[in-house]
Amino acid sequence: MPQLRMALAQVNPTVGDLDGNTDLHVEWARKAADAGAHVVVFPEMSLTGYPVEDLSLRETFAEASRARVQRLAGLLADAGCGDLLAYVGYLDRDEAGPRDAAAALYRGEVVARQFKHHLPNYGVFDEHRWYKPGRTLDVLRLHGLDIGMVICEDIWQEGGPVAALGDAGVDVVVAPNASPYERAKDDVRLPLVARRAAEANAPIVYTNLIGGQDDLVFDGDSIVVGTDGELLARAPQFVEHLLLADLDLPSGEHAPEGEYEGLRVRRRVLSDEPAPAFEPPAEPAISEPLPDEAEVWSALVVGLRDYVRKNGFRSVTFGFSGGIDSAVTAALAVDALGADAVYGVSMPSEYSTEHSRSDAAELARRLGCHFRVEPVADMVRVYVDQLKLAGTGLAEENIQARVRGMLLMALSNLEGHLVLATGNKTELAVGYSTIYGDAVGGFAPIKDVFKTHVWALARWRNAEAEKRGETPPIPENSITKPPSAELRPDQLDTDTLPDYALLDDILDDYVEGDRGFADLLAAGFDPAVVDQVVRMVDRAEFKRRQYPPGTKITFKAFGRDRRLPLTNAWRETHEGA
Amino acid sequence: MPQLRMALAQVNPTVGDLDGNTDLHVEWARKAADAGAHVVVFPEMSLTGYPVEDLSLRETFAEASRARVQRLAGLLADAGCGDLLAYVGYLDRDEAGPRDAAAALYRGEVVARQFKHHLPNYGVFDEHRWYKPGRTLDVLRLHGLDIGMVICEDIWQEGGPVAALGDAGVDVVVAPNASPYERAKDDVRLPLVARRAAEANAPIVYTNLIGGQDDLVFDGDSIVVGTDGELLARAPQFVEHLLLADLDLPSGEHAPEGEYEGLRVRRRVLSDEPAPAFEPPAEPAISEPLPDEAEVWSALVVGLRDYVRKNGFRSVTFGFSGGIDSAVTAALAVDALGADAVYGVSMPSEYSTEHSRSDAAELARRLGCHFRVEPVADMVRVYVDQLKLAGTGLAEENIQARVRGMLLMALSNLEGHLVLATGNKTELAVGYSTIYGDAVGGFAPIKDVFKTHVWALARWRNAEAEKRGETPPIPENSITKPPSAELRPDQLDTDTLPDYALLDDILDDYVEGDRGFADLLAAGFDPAVVDQVVRMVDRAEFKRRQYPPGTKITFKAFGRDRRLPLTNAWRETHEGA
């Protein structure tokens, strides 16, 4: 049976960095050629990075991207990869507008350019804004085998481009992807791709991006699925990787060029001689997906690392309060950047407890990161005296949080660190934070992690350390003590908020599920608590708008996933309309 | 010839406020009935407010909106407006998903529900995210005359729903709209509507919203255009208004129900008896559009007023620096809210000049608003001493700006004012502002006004005052002195930035026009200056993300109009790709 060796180049490009991304393609195509591959498949928009957002509308950028694809064809040939058929994602543009495109490069030439057909316009995606849909499918014959291609969302459509390729007839389908990570999304991808393989009547070679881009992180998890739906190969998550798969392909008699499912299928022969016989790789390369907590931790580490690195920072600074949020943020930052890149700052006020100060110091000791103490009492006092804030409650509490924010920004100005905000999703949901205070920062690593999940991650990370015989990074006390903002004497979060387990349950239904009051009552929640939570969430929209970005790990993250008006008089109530 | 009296209810609803908006509809329908109108046309989504953004996806809200339309039909009949045919915009939802809808209410019943066909998904619009498109058109016969309807974007399409109505045959077309204000947009609307009137072979009754909603402001400018393109009536801009137009309609023989231009046209007869004869209104009601500066000023006043009012604030506070930006913001705030709602704060540092202090005081005196002086020296000193910031440049400069931001937030916490940020578009474009410093605020009234335009508005506002024999609100000195942030001795904006006239010219091409380097050189700009400006703009994206919203007045405002990645290595350069 004719064979092809397919290589999936699961790489981490940087948005807009055409030079760096070009080098990345040459490097990984070279690896694929060295491994004896006949075809290498890069992810969606691999040459430009993804998503480029409104850069898609910039004509100069589209022109540069088009020119790069052409140039890359020559560079690959010069690098001795000319006989490798390389699928490369890029931004195209024609008279109709910008296109989410992939090109096939072979022997120094661009032998096909195809555009994405289905443009997602929900969740974090605005692709009807950014692109025009394609209407053609290019099938290339290499070594006597017919290769079709679809891009990302195309593979989520039943009866779409994959079905058209199935009708026309192909021996294998390659699918460049940029599918952002969400918890448990990998459970969805494999059955989906298996259904499409059946529709195509051919194996599917699905390459996904890895790496962080602003609030998105891509987990890779590239797969090869046989015609019968069997998983043939799977790449590890969150790392660059070259996945190889040798496919035995029974080349069939295929239909001619023409219209299938409303799309134009074109065919081009690159070579008809069968590939020389080759030894299959010794190991079947099927990586196991990560368990849930490890997967989330990796997502947060990579999201943070790439935001810092791709934006030219070398170090981060943030408040070490002794609490669980800053402790988990610190452990993530050390895993992402190394202890020497992390600058913890303890900023005790007169309401800070002794245990908070010692827990913060203990955290720094365990992590081996930089640590300094900057008391805020003197600064707070000037404001309190000048504005007569003593005993005013919120105004006085906020001053402490804001003095801390200013201190961190001053250290950033002095030493060049990126400031991290340590808020979690629960806090952000109900507005339990001080705008321009603890909300200060360029990035917020645990912004999309609910409070109960923050605790679970802390326990998991400590347990992992113990398994490896290392010191658990997070002081036990930071995990077990009752959470407090410590902005007034004996303050506890539960003075203001419902118990976190209950609160996160309600938020999961209201924020993630977009459910109404009646539904929340039907789920068994107390009406008074639901009312309190819903009001807090609705009123905090203005704080979320000015909050820094952070890595999305849930179905619906705050930010472009959830676009609500600031001015909004609608309140979910018992009465309904 | 049969006649109809049409009423255009150019109203200002609040997003999500179904109770308030219901009352508004009853009140204005009553006015229309009292004026003898046969038909009243409310704007797009008048019952829910516009845009509701992701509230469109909330099932409870859609259900409440549907129920309200039904209830409103009864309320209008109860209020004695039953014989008035009322077109009301609302959010619908069916098995396909949410719909941007308008209903026709008559004698206590909902006699038609129609969905928007063309969904804009560019600029500030994400309507492919929010709605599913309609496929039907409802034509209602009232007093023997056939009335068709199209919603907003539908009227921007050649060969679309209007053409379908033209093919099927109607006597008049009503068009509920929510078309956000942009400078000079009214120049586009009239010729557009005239072209559609020709396509429909019928007059068009175009009602637009007024009022502010977050970063958008709607100017009204509702119009009635005859079959021949003649302007028959025009409402004033930026105020609620009932515009009446008596139309003489030659009722033609029309085609039957069926498919036209791919859309299903349905017909329903409400009444076949001609309307009783009536006197036309004595005055032809054609308001003149405002001259440019007056129009922009009104847009900024209404945008600010409605953000404050619709979010439940009664007063605003912000820094009075003595400079032009805070002076114009103050004059706008007084025009929007009255002098008693404006709390100016002068916050001199050791680098503040004497003239700045006196100009700030003079501004407050002219406006008659509240004014206090809070020196920042003592607060700044504690930071400078504790962190050893003396002579560090940026770190020390930023501390002053941030102390001011904290002071304003503390006053907001104490006294309940909304804090305004006074930055202009030029500053925001090049990042010439301190995040968490002068960028602090809930709303930024002149965020979309270029610096040279700020001066022009100041001169215009002063001249208007002089014409009316009032004191010009803005001290001449604030207009004429060279701009300075006064964060170090003898600092001038031109130390860091090109001359504002040149800078605004480049920004107009780069930000508004999305033009590349070669284009900017072709426009005659110096390559070194272009390079400096482009880099400043690209690097300031993170500051813009955390900036408060402000009223859009240009084609492309910062915010949802311009969505660029934070992590973005693409730079426009001389070399191109």
Keywords:
eight-stranded mixed beta sheet, 2 domains, 19% strand, glutaminase activity (chains A, B), six-stranded mixed beta sheet, Rossmann fold, nucleotide-binding (chains A, B), 20 strands, Nitrilase/N-carbamoyl-D-aminoacid amidohydrolase, alpha/beta, Glutamine-dependent NAD(+) synthetase (chains A, B), 577 residues, homodimer
Q: How are the secondary structure elements laid out?
A:
The structure is a homodimer of 577-residue chains.
Chain A: E1 3-10, H1 18-34, E2 39-41, H2 59-78, E3 85-94, E4 97-106, E5 109-115, H3 127-130, E6 136-142, E7 145-149, H4 161-168, E8 172-177, H5 186-200, E9 204-208, E10 210-213, E11 216-219, E12 223-225, E13 231-234, E14 241-248, E15 258-260, E16 263-269, H6 292-310, E17 316-319, H7 324-337, E18 342-346, H8 354-367, E19 370-373, H9 377-387, H10 394-415, E20 418-419, H11 425-430, H12 451-467, H13 476-480, H14 500-512, H15 517-522, H16 527-539, H17 541-545
Parallel strand pairs in A: 1-2, 2-3, 6-16, 7-8, 8-9, 17-18, 17-20, 18-19
Antiparallel strand pairs in A: 1-14, 3-4, 4-5, 6-7, 9-12, 10-11, 12-13, 15-16
Helix pairs in contact in A: 1-2, 4-5, 6-7, 6-12, 7-8, 7-12, 9-10
Task: Characterise the protein shown here.
- Two copies of one chain form a homodimer.
- Chain A is an alpha/beta fold and 577 residues long.
- Chain A contains 17 helices and 20 strands.
- In chain A, the strands form four sheets. The first copy, chain A, has an eight-stranded mixed sheet with strand order 13-12-9-8-7-6-16-15. A six-stranded mixed sheet of chain A has the order 5-4-3-2-1-14.
- Chain A is elongated, with a radius of gyration of 26 Å.
- The interface between A and B is large, with 86 and 86 residues.
- Chains A, B: It catalyses: deamido-NAD(+) + L-glutamine + ATP + H2O = L-glutamate + AMP + diphosphate + NAD(+) + H(+).
